[in-house]
From TrEMBL:
It comes from the Bacteria. InterPro entries: AB_hydrolase_fold. This is Alpha/beta hydrolase. The lineage of its organism: Bacteria, Bacillati, Bacillota, Bacilli, Bacillales.
Amino acid sequence: MEKIIKLIDESELKVGLVGNPNSATIMLPVAKESVYGQEAENLKLWGVDPELGKHFIEGLADKFQILYFDYEGHRMQHPVPENLTPENIVKDLLTIVDEMNVKRFSYYGYSWLALVGLQLAIRTDRLESLIMGGFPAIDGPYKEMMVVTNKTYEQALNNQNSPVIDEQDQSSPEKIDWDHIQVKINPDQTKQFVTMYENLMEFDDREIQHKLVIPRLAFAGEKDTIVYGENFGSVTVDIIGILQKNKQELEHLGWDVEILKGNDMDHTKAMQPNTVLPLVMPWLIRKLNITR
């Protein structure tokens, strides 16, 4: 079943619900639309599955009911530069479950959509479990991401009238000079993430841990450290370093923590379905007491 749902900013999002209606529901806000042809080939060069959403849905739908949509893609098409606050994102997600008549559900998010899951978990009692990939559950790099998004926004403003932004070969990650790459993007698209991180500057992810009483899993790839060049504020977003440092404490707090091994297991590789599904599928079956 697919349905067009009006979010709180009046924009319309396509949402789907498939799988086993008698089982637990998993919310997948990461379910991107499949792409084909040259666009798909370009994504493969970056290690991205061009059918990421489809493969996530297919991989989970045998055992679970899957509530899927592409929230990031929607916000890139319908940016809300002043209003992408944690509160408003959570309102959007709860609007979706209400419209789809879903009472309780689990949440899987990766990267910034993982931190959204944490915000959701402290604002509703409808979550059955939480999976955060590629963003630490405590000591999250909010301040570093504030720097990166601010710099990205500045570039977007400065470069919007530039005819040629970057003459580098961007056909693969190896051919890009990350220290000097320039961004050309609709400023509204990146300003909304400035707004989101601004609203998280005072957020204490340690102080809220006592509110989390559901099963929860945090994971990242062992090479998930992003070193940004001067154009992005010369900051390091060390996802795996933070997760490793706090692994014991997180486990004491009730989290399951997994570090995905591999010399190529960076932020992009650790979000692909063939990496994530073998981890989250058995975890969900175990934690939600699903009959195999």
